[in-house]
TrEMBL record:
<protein>
    <submittedName>
        <fullName>IS3 family transposase</fullName>
    </submittedName>
</protein>
<dbReference type="GO" id="GO:0015074">
    <property type="term" value="P:DNA integration"/>
</dbReference>
<dbReference type="InterPro" id="IPR025948">
    <property type="entry name" value="HTH-like_dom"/>
</dbReference>
<dbReference type="InterPro" id="IPR012337">
    <property type="entry name" value="RNaseH-like_sf"/>
</dbReference>
<dbReference type="InterPro" id="IPR036397">
    <property type="entry name" value="RNaseH_sf"/>
</dbReference>
<dbReference type="GO" id="GO:0003676">
    <property type="term" value="F:nucleic acid binding"/>
</dbReference>
<dbReference type="Pfam" id="PF00665">
    <property type="entry name" value="rve"/>
</dbReference>
<dbReference type="Pfam" id="PF13276">
    <property type="entry name" value="HTH_21"/>
</dbReference>
<dbReference type="InterPro" id="IPR001584">
    <property type="entry name" value="Integrase_cat-core"/>
</dbReference>
<dbReference type="InterPro" id="IPR050900">
    <property type="entry name" value="Transposase_IS3/IS150/IS904"/>
</dbReference>
<comment type="function">
    <text>Involved in the transposition of the insertion sequence.</text>
</comment>
<feature type="domain" description="HTH-like">
    <location>
        <begin position="29"/>
        <end position="79"/>
    </location>
</feature>
<feature type="domain" description="Integrase catalytic">
    <location>
        <begin position="107"/>
        <end position="144"/>
    </location>
</feature>
Amino acid sequence: MLSKLHLSKSGYYNYLHRKPSKQSISKKERMQAIQTIYDDNHQIYGAPKIAKEMQKKGEKISQRTVGVYMREMGIKACYIKPYVKTTFDSDFSTKLHNILKRDFSPSKPNEAWCTDITYIFTLEGFVYLTSVMDLYSRKIIAWTDASIFIGQVKHLEFDLIRNQSH
């Protein structure tokens, strides 16, 4: 095998028993420190914050070096998106009338419908899912999803008209 690789036996055994260099020892210690800081901070910290933490402890290390080591280790910061309030309470009590009077079991199809709007968070942003359900059959008779809430009603009207014809 060594002859195929053009290596001598003595060179191979010298490599096996070689003591680690100061640089490789230092690199391992730094990588362990990076991993510790990364884990202690719930895997949120990236290279800039980890470098600052290490510098506070007296370690002379650059942000770039921390970034290189993190890539070698296969770790990266996880960004936690801040909570954004998407709905705001409004008082519609004077405008809305309770037609169903909490009777959610109509006697025939298409006598009572209910609707719901759900906000679904994705990596690209919110998707708004709007659906209309017939309370008699409990089936969804129309639904639409969109990344922009404006225009949802028009899509629902189209779906309702399309479903009424079937």
